[in-house]
Each structure stands twice: as structure tokens, then as C-alpha cells.
Design goal:
Strands 2, 4, 5, 6, 9, 10 and 11 form a 7-stranded mixed beta sheet that branches. A 4-stranded antiparallel beta sheet has the order 1-3-8-7, with no helix packed on it. It has no helices and 11 strands.
Length: about 110
Amino acid sequence: LQLVESGGGLVQPGGSLRLSCAASGFAFSRYSMNWYRQAPGKERELVATITRAATTNYAVAVKGRFTISRDNSKNTVYLQMNSLKPEDTAVYYCYEPRFGSWGPGTQVTVSS
């Protein structure tokens, strides 16, 4: 099982980024997928979840600004991040809860 994130980078406050997580080695469409993030000196926190039925849930801090989605034909889960704030700066990780697998993460930095 492999998860690989991409799409991170440096963006100004108020800007947008779209993260991608390409999955392989398991039946992607059958399982929920999560996005987590970890800021320097802080614990890793759950950002968003999407079930196999595409039901979504969000952390309070990102609700209304972030959107999680999935494309089962591409075995990929996305995180669209809008109205980014400096406090969104973190390493963002893709996580598959059924097998407990993490991607290596992608850095998102929000700064002017």
C-alpha cells in the first residue's frame, strides 16, 4: 500500500492550493480517506475525512474553506484549500485508516 501527497508549496494569505494524494496497492474506492496536518511544535490533527460514499467531515478550523474530494477512477483524494491563513502552515498528510497507512507528507506554508 502506498500513499503519495503532492501540491504543497508557499502561498500568500488568502490564497489557494490543491493537494493530491495518489493511492496504490489496495481497493481505494472501498475505504474512507483522511487528511491530517502537523504544524511545528504541535500534535498531528485531523483536517478532513471522506467516506467511500463521499460523505465528508471537517475540522472546525477549516470548515467552509477546505473541501475534500475523491476520484476513484484515479485512486486519488484531493484537498482544495481556499482562503488560506498563516495558521494553516503545516505538513499535510494523507491517511488510510483501515490499514493505518500514512503518506510522507507535503509542506504547506502560508506567508506574505
